[in-house]
Structures are given as structure tokens and as C-alpha cells.
Amino acid sequence: MSSPSRYKFKEVEAKWQNFWKCNNSFQVEKNSQKKKFYCLEMFPYPSGKIHMGHVRNYTIGDVLSRFKSLNGFNVLHPMGWDSFGMPAENAAKENKLNPRYWTEKNIETMKSQLKQLGLSIDWSREISTCSAEYYKHQQKLFLDLYDKGLVYRKESYVNWDPIDKTVLANEQVIDGKGWRSGAIVERKKLNQWFFKISHFSEELLSNLSFLDGWPDKVKTMQKNWIGKSYGCEIDFKIKGSDKIDIVKCYTTRPDTLFGFSFLALSVDHPIAKFYEDDEAFQKFRKECAKTGTTEESIAQASKIGYKTNLKAINPLNNKNEVPVYFANFVLMDYGFGAVFGCPAHDQRDFDFAKKYKLQINTVVRPLDQPDTFKVTDEAYAGPGVLINSDYLNGFKAPDESIKKTIELLEEKKLGKKKINYRLKDWGISRQRYWGCPIPVAYDENSNIIKIPENELPVKLPENIDINTNGNPLDAKEDWKKITLSGKKYTRETDTLDTFVDSSWYYLRFCSAKEEAKPFNKSDIDYWMPVDQYIGGVEHAILHLLYSRFFMRALNLNNDEIKIKEPFKGLFTQGMVCHETYKDEANNWLSPDEVFTNNGKDYYLKKNKNKKIKVGPSESMSKSKKNTIDPQNIIEQYGADAVRFFILADSPPEKDIQWSDDGIISSYKFIQKFWLLNEEILEVTKNNLIEHNDEIEIFTNQIINKINQALEKFRYNVIIASYHEIYSFFKKTIEHKRNYKNLKNNYEKII
Q: What pLDDT is recorded for position 417?
């Protein structure tokens, strides 16, 4: 029998997609007796075309949605677009286009590509965050949180991206650089809007233990980011000024006080006001502004300090007086903007002490070292026993020694035990045009006034010059100036961080067509929480933590909303990887631009004498050009082959290596399965013969195996099972025997 034609494959795919279109019950009666299943993949940013990462993510969710639908569940499987953001604004600047036009064109392209994959998506619930129909509800939610005291504005030092010219939250600074631009982040003081996420620090931490459907690695990442620590507030007496009595400091290691050799202050500490006329200090302060506000940027920056005329007295040893410095590694929003330096047991303090020739007093020795142990080349931060610490000598560090030291400090009324959190409030102001407008204005005295609900949405102006320096909205005077109830006001020109848009979209999908409010209570009661959420582990902190906060923020003082955790189950899929290529000038090349004859040596297609440098396999990235266009692959091999390959190579949580041989192999296997189907149809035309128990047993075993694999996301095991299925049925029909139960069992598997 000849292989089926490409036309035949496309015809079959069209029928298959039409089957799902007709049989997926998305318009659900909420009083239905069926169980519900809400499957949601992290929605994409409309960058222009889908990539293989999208294919993998949405295929995983599609398989699960189909499976649940076939098992009688009411399935909600929607799709939307995370369509605000800097890339659209930057692309519009480069191409002299309106960001809306660029974004909507990309949505149209990506939507058509996703449809080609035959995904069982309910497009009737499609949302786009840049649509006024979406962000008018977001503005209502913002004002609701403002009324609850969970939104506030204050002057604060922020992470400033000098390339994108916008503020970044701590979570958006990676290794001291902007998460999108890659620019080294600077410190800048601005009036900013904040969400009070710290209000829920303990709850966000403790509730992680109830998220049984989440990967442990994600819960660990969130736990570390929230960063609960037990420490002590300590009062250090200050000498050298009659205007300064004490400096309060928070530390997690009060037991190392006998190793105290300097006190470091933030340049924003209240004591800094006494140095306003000091030119050297002001110069130092400007230098500190080149360091961002995140722990990562501070850790990478060279440690610099400014020595004051002050001395700090050790509360456990009055004879121990040490210099007080302002330092670039101390932030005002951590503790009290002051840290005590113990160089022997903190590498940051060690580096600072070495630079400024300060004492390094060893007060903790490793368990296997004698009391003569001395720190010389690097700090020792491990466990051990206290030494050189007077009446604290011999206590095991850190557990025994910390507890004993806090007891002593509390007894002397020099300190007290305190719990602290690393998690800081979420800065949500962005100095960009292409984002959700913040629905507030200011009177002539800069007092805040909420935009009335009947004036919402506050829409972005359409005719605007976005090629201005800074925020384009600042220059739009006719938009900024408004009149409310006969009084003149000035609009807020900052827009919301795009992570706000994605922090509640899962709720909007439940009531996508609701006009009067963000969502209906009955819809939320029925569909929420999301049963299975699927997306990349790179969002383990930013998006997932913000979404958990938003659900709690809406829940606060609201008896109607009972749900606090938005995502019951979480699955983080691996990346799709491909080799990287560079030419002699170190420019990235796409796979389409290179060729090889032997799989070892690669050359430039347009100049076959030029050899190409082959780099390591990395996750597909447009910046490195190591992407494969799914549309070309679909047109060449069909959507089924693409979906089959993307699930076949490894477990979905692991990275997958793209392989041309792999997609060809998947295509050929689907052809073989098609031919097997034709052969079974042919052989079952004959007269029925005896019942074959072996077929019955195999079918039940393989279905059970597949069901278990589906529930555990072992999709590669399912693909392997289909190879077993092919081999079994191919062998069964070799003699053209028409068993009574052959067709029936084959249909069960199909």
C-alpha cells in the first residue's frame, strides 16, 4: 500500500480539528453535574510569530484538556495575549509605527499559527491586556486595592534601566541587569506607586506548604525570595556627635558581635542629613547611585565606603569602639539602613575591611579546628563554635549562640528578637507609554484624587509622539490636563508594570464577556482555582508570586471571594533547545543560513567556503537566532508530526533538543500509523473468527498505562506506548486474521 499523500494528511487533520471544534463543550452550564477542569497555559507576548517553546507549552495543555474532555469534564481552556510592554514601544519607535498597530498585527499572525496546531482552545474567551475592555477592569481593581490600603505612593530609590529608561522591580533585575535590555541597573530616587505585597509575607510563605500540586523547586525559589529570617534589633551607642545618640540595626548573626569592626550606613540613613554640606560625601553619594537596589547588583558592585567622624560602641563590650562608614552595599529599605560589620564571617564585610584596612576578628571556628583558628584569606560563614567572645565562648554557632546572644541583649535592654522578610513591596510605576494608565490625578497641591468610576477607562492617547526622551505621556499636555466636577487636575503619567496585567487574567477568563465588572462571583466560584497551570520556570518568582499576592489582595475584606491560591496545580515545562551558530565576525546566524554534509563541519549557505562556528545548544532565542519556525515545519510535515515530536524526546519538564532527524522520524511514524489503520480497516472486512484474549489484555494494559502517564505528565511515555501499540497490532494482522474483538479494541485506543 502506498504512503498517503500530503493532501490526505491535511484532509485528515482538518477533520480531526473540526471534530474537536464540535465536541469540546466550552459553553458550560454552571449547574451542570459534570466535574470542571480549568487548564491554563501562561499566555504569550505577541512578539510576531510563535516559536517552538509556544508549541511545546500549548501542546502539553491541549493533550490534558482533550483527555479531561473525553472523560466527561467541563473543560475551560482559554487563550489571551500579554500585549502591553516595552518591546512593542521600542519596536514602534524603530519602525515609526503605533504600538497598537504593531501589537494587533502580531496577535493576528500568532493566532493563525496557533490555530494551525489544532489546539482545543476556546477562542470565544480571548482577551488582550492592551484592550480598553480589559484594562478598564484593571483600573477598577487598582482603585479597590487603593481603598484597602494596599496601594500607596512614596519617594523611593528604585532600579533604573538606563536603556529602556524605566523603573524595574527587584524581581526584574537579573545579575544586576535589566531583565529585557541587559543594561547595568542604576539607583535613582523617584516618586513611585507600590503594591503592599509585604503585607502578606507570612501568608505567602506559609501557604506554600499547601500547594501539593506545585514542583518543590518552585516552592523553594519562592520561599527563598520571601526570605523569612530570625534575628535581632540592636541599639549601638554613637560617639562623636551630640546630635546622634544611637543607631538601630537588624542582624541575623548577633552572636558574632565580638567580631564587630565597623558600622555601615545607607547613604539615605537619617544621619546623612548632617553631611549635606560635605562635598566629599555628596560626591560619594552620586557614586553610590551607580549601584542598583537589588542584592545581586550590590553583590557585583565594588564595595566603597565613606568614613565619618563617628564611632559606634559594641553593646557587649564598651571598650570596643569602631568607625562608622556610609557604604554603597547598605540599603535603607532593609532593616534600619544600618549593618554591623563582622569581616571574619561575612565575605562582603571581609572585602570591605580589606579595602579600608579594618580589623578582622575571628570569633567562630569550624568544629574540626582548634581555638587558635584565624580567618586570613576569606570569610568563614559555616557552623562551628564561638571563640574570642568572652562569656559566649564555647556555644555552638549558629543555633545555640544566636539564642544565647539575643537573651543577653534583651536582658540588658540593648536589643530584641525580631522576624524579618526579604520580600519588599512591589514597585509598579513604569515611565512608559505602552501600558495600563494609572487611574489617578493630582490637584495643584499634588494631592491624589481617584478618577471616578464613571470616567473609566482612562485610555491612552492615540496620537502621540513616542520618540521623545523619557515618558511620552509627560509631553502630552492635552491628555494630562483634565477637569473633574469643575476643578482642574493633572493625570498620573506613569503606567502600570505589565506584570500587573498578568496577575489577574486567569480570573478574567472566567467572565471574559462581562462588561460591568472584572468577573462574576458565580463564575469564579465555579471555575477557580485553575486546576492545571502550565508555563516556564523562569516565572517562578515574578509572575507566580505576584498572582498569589493579587488573589489575596482581592480577597482582603471581601467575603464574596473565598479563594486565596489561584493555581491548584503547576507544571513547569522545559525549554526547546537548538545549536547556536556564528560567522567569522561573531554575528549570530539562524539554522536556515547554515548547512552541513557530515554533521560536524558547518558552512554558510550563501558562501559555501566560509566555515561557521558551532556553539552549544541553548534554549531557542530570537536574539541568538537559534529558532525554528513552527509554521514552516507544520507546512512541511503537518501539525500532528510537530506535536508528536515535541512530546516524544524527553519528559515535558526537561529541556528538549531540536532535531531535524527527530521531526522526520515523527512524520514517518504517523505515516506508518495511518497505513496500519488502513490495513485494519481492510482486514476487518472479512468474516469474523474467534475472540482473541491477548488483544483484550494488551488493550486494557496499554490504556491503563497511558492514563497513568497522562495524569503524571509523562507524555514521552505515552509516545513510547504508541510505538508498542503499532508493533502489537502490526504483528496481530500479519496473517490477515479478522478476530472478533480486533477492530473494537483498536478503536478504544484510537
A: 94
Mean pLDDT, all residues of the chain: 89
With the C-alpha atoms ordered 82, 512, 35, 559, is the resulting torsion angle positive or negative? positive
Q: 607 has which bridge partners? A: 604
- Lookup result for grid cell 452550564: 29
Collapsed DSSP state (helix, strand, coil) of residue 36: strand
**SS3 state at 378:** coil
Q: Which positions ≥6 away from 80 have C-beta within 8 Å? A: 43, 125, 126, 127, 128, 129, 505, 508, 509
Bridge partners of 184, per DSSP, are 177
Confidence at residue 171, expressed as pLDDT on a 0 to 100 scale: 64
Instruction: State the cell numbers at 2.
Output: 502506498
Please, what is the Cα angle at 540 between 105 and 151, to 5 degrees? 80
Q: Is pTM beyond 0.90 here?
A: no
CA–CA gap between residue 312 and residue 296 (Å, rounded): 28
Report pLDDT for 15: 47
Cell numbers representing residue 679 in the block = 490495513
Phi/psi at 623 (nearest 5 deg)?
-65, -30
- Beta strand pairing status for 317-327 and 262-265? parallel
Question: Where do the DSSP E strands lie in 583-646?
Answer: 588-589, 594-596, 602-604, 607-611, 613-619
pLDDT digits (tens, 9 = 90+) for 210-222: 999 999 999 999 9
Count of CB atoms situated within 10 Å of the CB of 728 = 15
d(CA 449, CA 446): 9
Q: Which residue has the cell 500500500?
A: 1
For residue 372, give the 3-state DSSP assignment.
coil
